[in-house]
Amino acid sequence: MKDLISVIIPVSNVENYLKESLDSVLCQTYANLEIIVVDDGSFDGTAKLCDEYSKKDKRIKIVHEPDLNNSEIKNIGLKFATGEYVTFINGGDYVADNYIERLYWGLAEHNTDIAFCRYKKYFVSHNEKVYESLENAKSYLLNFDEFVSQAFCLEEGENSITCSSWRTLFKMEIIRKWNIAFDESIEIWEDIRFLFDYLKVSLSYYVVDEYLYYYRLDEDMVQKYNNYYIEIKTTAYRHVEKYVKDENIKGIIKFNLVWNLFYQELSSLSVYYDLEKVKKIYALEEYKNFKIKTYIQNSKNKSFANVMFMLLIKMRIPKLVWKLNRNRD
Predict the structure, then answer these.
(1) How buried is residue 69: exposed, middle or buried, by Cβ count under 10 Å (0-12/13-18/19+)?
(2) Nearest alpha-carbon partner for 170 in 98, 111, 116, 92
(3) How far apart are CA 218 and CA 198, in angstroms?
(4) Structure confidence at residue 125 (pLDDT)
(5) CB-based contacts of 323: which residues, under 8 Å, 6+ apart?
(6) CA dihedral of 190, 194, 197, 199, whole degrees rounded to 10
(7) What pairs with residue 138 in β-bridges?
(8) How many angstroms separate the CA atoms of 38 and 98, rounded?
(9) Residues of the chain under the 70 pLDDT cut
């Protein structure tokens, strides 16, 4: 009998996408699954659809828990999980039919503690459904510092290793032994602390060099942000930095934090220029200490555009960064 694998699927008002997501899990080539769907008090047809699916397939367990944040939802999923391994899939995303089989093979064949795969973004409004393979794909092993250097390389997410609990297979033995859980005080960007608490007690990591996870982008979606977003993101980066020994990688982590806050939080995600956010970023020690030279010397994926954006930020003309990026959109 193959090992039981728990699949935790947090859902919240994803009626339009849930069927595709659940169907992609139910048709996995690796069949020994328990599928734990945690519904965050959805007010559309999500809850009803979940219950209908649970009647069709005995592997599906439904938990209805209203008014929870992302960390609380995932911890409830872990509490119900009985498998030897666990993976997370967002309720609106879908996976290739060999997603679990390939990750499981990576762990079992190479005796590693965690396995990742690459992911592909898809736009709902474009009616896309993509299953893409990489030419000359070659899976590989990483140690901790190698993982961190790739996770913070600033390359486009779908072409890099990212800090997420989805598209990842974990050992429940390690989670239980070290009491690893999501920090329920964190409502957004909660994955990174969980992931690095797991990585610090793991020996090696296996990367499946294939696009097996498909991440939904909906132009009508509104991402949840609040006044503490910068503080939350900074705390998460500092959490990572504690476990990194390589000083060059630490420098890139600092650089990436500042880039992330200016480029994403200010440039990409803000409809209006927000001076208060700029002041908060300038006040960070990470901003004061980051060096563009460190990034240029050590990043494998540096680009002229990234360097120019950071020069403008360092010259304290972030409004120009914002305008340039708004014009690109």
Answers:
(1) middle
(2) 116
(3) 30
(4) 61
(5) none
(6) -120
(7) none
(8) 23
(9) 1, 124-137, 154-161, 218-227, 267-271, 294-295, 297-303, 325-329
Q: What pLDDT is recorded for position 230?
A: 86
- Find the length of the chain: 329
Phi, psi of 39, rounded to the nearest 5 degrees: -95, 120
| Structure confidence by residue, pLDDT tens digits, 124-135 | 665 555 555 555
- Residue 9 contacts residue 166 (beta carbons within 8 Å): no
Q: Cβ distance 30 to 101 under 8 Å?
A: yes
Q: Please, are residues 30 and 96 in contact by the beta-carbon 8 Å criterion?
A: no
- The token pair at 184 is 């329920």
Per residue, the 3-state secondary structure of the chain, as one string, reads CCCCEEEEEEECCCHHHHHHHHHHHHCCCCCCEEEEEEECCCCCCHHHHHHHHHHHCCCEEEEECCCCCHHHHHHHHHHHCCCCEEEECCCCCEECCCHHHHHHHHHHHHCCCEEEEEEEEEEHHHCCCCCCCCCCCCCEEECHHHHHHHHCCCCCHHHCCCCCCECEEEEHHHHHHCCCCCCCCCCCCCHHHHHHHHHCCCCCEEEEEEEEEEEEECCCCCCCCCCCHHHHHHHHHHHHHCCCCCHHHHHHHHHHHHHHHHHHHHHHCCCCCCHHHHHHHHCCHHHHHCCHHHHHHHCCCCCHHHHHHHHHHHCCCHHHHHHHHHHHC
Cα gap 217→74, rounded to integer Å: 21
Tell me, what's the pLDDT at 221? 47
